[in-house]
TrEMBL record:
Organism whose genome encodes this protein: candidate division WWE3 bacterium
Domain Ribosomal RNA adenine methylase transferase N-terminal: 33-206
InterPro entries associated with the record: KsgA/Erm, rRNA_Ade_diMease-like_C, rRNA_Ade_methylase_Trfase_N, rRNA_adenine_dimethylase, SAM-dependent_MTases_sf
Positions annotated to bind S-adenosyl-L-methionine: N26, L28, G53, E78, S123
Similarity annotation: Belongs to the class I-like SAM-binding methyltransferase superfamily. rRNA adenine N(6)-methyltransferase family.
SUPFAM superfamilies tied to this protein: S-adenosyl-L-methionine-dependent methyltransferases
E.C. number: 2.1.1.182
Protein name per Swiss-Prot or TrEMBL: Ribosomal RNA small subunit methyltransferase A
Length: 267
């Protein structure tokens, strides 16, 4: 499959399909990384798979090889019309896949799986990683799991824990268990980005039904607004007492569970 990916890239380039830098188009060539991503997704019969930015179709092809004969729906969302047309032609014989031309940021809030469970996979453009993840968390229902290829530094930040937690780790880990799966060298992309990538797996936590994600986001922004400040410079003392937070600590000294508990008490 590695040669197939490279061949697909060369074919696209030969048709003057130059990658668009502003869209963060860097195509993964590492077959083992792709296989690991698809396997880690943990798909079950009757579910929906949402792929973000299929591009050349390398991950899409692996999904179809693994689940093409299963009772699953695949929705591949691509913003670049050049790839949309090619992908529709490539996967014309598969009845369970739909190639959707849309900006994923606009599409996610409109997606309603009704009563079906769904999972999300994709190689995310580095420049919109945060908005995409925020939109996933704010969806009508959470995916069972996500496997995302993102900038390594961001992947490490999302998977960090106290005493080195971050706004992103506390926000994401409040809704998902996070696992850092592997690092992918920048040389495994065409064209190569400036930095290495990391693959993370998010698994939905089962008991988050009473949290307004928008309000919680603002609460965490306040807590992490100045990482160098102690919490007694951010919150009133009575708030710290109610939430059982140590005012001499900084935000990164607490994990997602601590912040979720504090939000519930103070909101």
């Amino acid at each position: 499959m590695g040669n197939t990916i490279i061949s697909g890239y060369n074919n696209f380039m030969s048709e003057m399909f130059e990658p668009i830098k502003r869209l963060g188009q860097n195509f993964l060539k590492d077959r083992l990384a792709i296989k690991k991503m698809v396997k880690a997704l943990g798909v079950q019969d009757g579910e929906i798979i949402v792929e973000i930015g299929p591009g050349l179709g390398a991950i899409t092809r692996e999904i179809l090889e693994a689940y093409g004969n299963w009772d699953v729906e695949i929705k591949a969302v691509e913003i670049d019309l050049r790839f949309v047309d090619k992908l529709r032609s490539m996967f014309l014989d598969y009845m369970n896949i739909k190639i959707i031309e849309s900006n994923i940021i606009d599409w996610l809030p409109t997606f309603d799986p009704v009563d079906k469970k769904f999972r999300v996979i994709g190689s995310l453009p580095y420049y919109i990683t945060s908005p995409i993840i925020h939109n996933i968390i704010k969806m009508k229902s959470l995916p069972e799991s996500c496997v995302l290829l993102i900038q390594k530094e961001v992947a490490r930040k999302i998977s960090s824990v106290a005493p080195d937690s971050s706004y992103m780790s506390s926000f994401v880990q409040s809704f998902f268990d996070v696992e850092y799966l592997m690092t992918v060298d920048k040389k495994e992309f065409a064209p190569s980005p400036e930095v290495d990538a990391g693959i993370i797996k998010l698994v939905k936590k089962q008991k988050i039904t009473d949290v307004d994600a928008n309000k919680y986001e603002h609460f965490l922004h306040k807590a992490y607004s100045n990482p160098r400040k102690m919490l007694n410079k951010v919150f009133y003392q009575d708030e710290l007492n109610k939430a059982d937070l140590n005012g001499s600590y900084r935000a990164q000294n607490y994990n997602a569970e601590d912040w979720l508990n504090a939000f519930r008490i103070l909101s």
